Predict the structure.
Amino acid sequence: MKKLINEPGDYVDEMLDGMVAAHPKRVRRLDGTKVLVRADAPIDGKVGVVSGGGSGHEPTHAGYLGEGMLDGAAAGEVFTSPTADQLEEMVNACDGGEGVLCVVKNYEGDVMNFETAGEMAEMEEVEVAQVVVDDDVAVEDSLYTSGRRGVCGTIFVHKVAGAKAAAGGDLQEVTEVAEKVVDNVGTMGMALTSCITPEKGEPTFDLGEDEIELGIGIHGEPGVERTDVMSADEVAEHLTEQVLDDLELDDGDEVATIVNGMGGTPMSELYIVNRRVQEVLGDHGLETWDAWVGDYMTSLDMMGCSVTVLRLDDELKELLGAPADTLALKRMD
Amino acid sequence: MKKLINEPGDYVDEMLDGMVAAHPKRVRRLDGTKVLVRADAPIDGKVGVVSGGGSGHEPTHAGYLGEGMLDGAAAGEVFTSPTADQLEEMVNACDGGEGVLCVVKNYEGDVMNFETAGEMAEMEEVEVAQVVVDDDVAVEDSLYTSGRRGVCGTIFVHKVAGAKAAAGGDLQEVTEVAEKVVDNVGTMGMALTSCITPEKGEPTFDLGEDEIELGIGIHGEPGVERTDVMSADEVAEHLTEQVLDDLELDDGDEVATIVNGMGGTPMSELYIVNRRVQEVLGDHGLETWDAWVGDYMTSLDMMGCSVTVLRLDDELKELLGAPADTLALKRMD
């Protein structure tokens, strides 16, 4: 294993310090925690929107801190949920008097800790709501979840909920529009290689030189099918068709898409995948209103990609197209 | 080798099609070429700013198309200069009557073909200027250059020249400010792994499991020193000190920095490097005015990073901080 790291145990701390060092006017770290919040949090009169989860998925979540998206992002150790007390600190720090929406990816540890944190914050008179994102169409249950996993569709939830909060929506309205995204989004991923965690220093699973894994999650957990190497077009077709099967879209529907890199895949390859994804969508009579291509939710150094499709209506288009100004901003408006 | 590609020979074409498919309202491809231009090019009364070079460095250069940066970007085959006739087509397509600045990385093929293209365009009454970027402090001459190589500092040239053109600067003013960046910027890179080109399908050079290469270029060409694996802090210190030695900055100088990923390195590791880069700059009495962290100029799937430092004055700060709206936009304002 070769990585640009120091002591594996300092990985998350040093990464967070490096983010603050890059953006000292935009984010700050809550003392003694692995929580980053907007430098100007809490914002009076605005619903707070926060998220969090295990590290190793950068720029998820702290990269989405900023105007029009997240107010707070809690980092756990690599692939490990943040603790409930740190989540509660984040919720309190991001409450501008109108309550806080927690956007939670569906993993048992995250869901449990966010629930506990919410209950603790409510005892301190903070109004808290929670949406659980479960967009991965590959598996019904998995190693770390009951129900489907939450993956890259979460970024659309951040964007839409963040925009609604910035536009003055109240907690119920922000929650409802976040749930609308959850109800209309699907994702499926694949890997060419396993990721290597800093602590373990070796691949989480073995994958031969002529094999790929379909239906992979974002923690090096097994996919649903191991198969021979496929071309980029075949990968794009398979992932897109699986997502479309799940979403049951109608001819003429407008969609937004993400072709997301898993961390070790060059952007050129993601564009090659996107080319075919858009063709497949066109063949189904769908209209792509916006297409994102890049590393949005990664799995350390894993090579691979995922395809996310979101069914749009006028409200979602308006919120997805609203300005956002975040650390990792990649054509968000 | 495992890559998300189809036929290696279609790599560049399909990548460009995938970019247009993602951003059809923002960019278009000139027929029969590998040139992308802003959808609204040429912009009447504005100096055109264009660049180009071999593919494999994405998001360089086409990712920087858009308001406040580039009007045109020409892609060659992987690590191969675009042809002079395609460069000329780009220059003509981006001339809004005020002339065109070509931003050229210092490689013999690029410099020669851009010069030829400029002469051809001038015969058609287009005013053309050229700046050659040679920011790599690692080597004085290299496999593909006489003089230093042009690497990630080029992105600062795109940003500053693009902002000056957007602000109404004439060709001479835009050229002068681009040259000011060239005179004040330095970069040094390193690799943990070699890149693998689509056509060749195997590493360009061999690097042992316990070795890294310092002073690497962006084409898999050899670095200046092969050494044992170093920690992220040691890498950050070495690269930053080499760049500072070259720039001869004064105590209290303000700088902008890029910690750039080579394509296969996760963003978390780049932030860990950035943490130490900023500490080293602080130890030298320098003030970081802006810090970029991410994949700006890559070398296919290579794991590694580079550090870029730019000495700032008031003019450069204003232009660096001006809004930009590009495909690959990563916190450009």
User: Anything to note?
Assistant: DSSP finds eight helices and 14 strands in chain B. The first strand of chain B starts at residue 27 and ends at 29.
